[in-house]
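Try this one yourself first.
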């Protein structure tokens, strides 16, 4: 007789995320909407309908990392002269000595916009 029962001790991977993340590396600019905060250039690691993970270009640039919970604007450069503007809040910060910092942003609103030239940001 063949045993058809599944082992209850086998590891099972569950996806807890509600929305699929797409691994997508695009140039972007992160601007903290608090006064006096510097903007940072970086690139996306992945994007979903409700969030984006961004690696900042400068390792150890602690003064340019928006604080946890801060409102931010992430301007993502798309191919051509288009961009994606994502308004949201910082939900996670990955940083450490000598590491390239990354921030996770929960997107509250996004829209497409024209992009003037790289480094100048998107126009409304």
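Now uncover the answer:
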């Amino acid at each position: 007789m063949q045993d058809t029962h599944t082992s209850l001790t086998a590891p099972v991977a569950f996806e807890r995320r509600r929305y699929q993340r797409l691994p997508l590396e695009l140039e972007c600019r992160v601007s903290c909407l608090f006064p006096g905060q510097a903007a940072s250039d970086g690139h996306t690691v992945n994007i979903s309908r409700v969030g984006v993970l961004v690696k900042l270009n400068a390792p150890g640039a602690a003064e340019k990392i928006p604080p946890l919970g801060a409102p931010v604007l992430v301007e993502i450069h798309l191919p051509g002269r288009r961009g994606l503007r994502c308004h949201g809040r910082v939900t996670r910060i990955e940083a450490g000595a000598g590491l390239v910092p990354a921030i996770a942003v929960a997107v509250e609103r996004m829209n497409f916009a024209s992009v003037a030239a790289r480094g100048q940001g998107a126009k409304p």
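Discussion: The CA atoms of residues 85 and 111 lie 5 Å apart. The chain has one domain: 22-123.
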